[in-house]
Amino acid sequence: MHAELYTDGIEEITVSGTVVRVDLVSLSPTERDANNAPKRVFSQRLIFSVESFANSVDVMQKALQGLVDAGVVRRNPPIQPHNGASGTHDALAPNTRPLNVSSNFR
What we know:
With 106 residues, the protein is an alpha+beta fold. It has one helix at 50-69; strands at residues 9-16, 19-32, 38-49. Helix content is 19%, strand content 32%.
């Protein structure tokens, strides 16, 4: 039997030279945030070469597309800039990025 790993998400992706580190998180059974929701706590780290990370992302994108095609997942439309200019970023706008996107790729 092979060991299996469950994660509640990815907290951070860090690229350093030719190494990509992906920090996985789990919801804490004991720690709570200000809204009484379980805190996300570091659980394990995946370490890839840049090439193997890129290949892994490709595999995950294909799996996601299969879920979308099967109707299991619905994609949200892209967020439109509120100032009418496409492709610009308002530094004063609230952060609307998904929780599991690394700040390395803003």
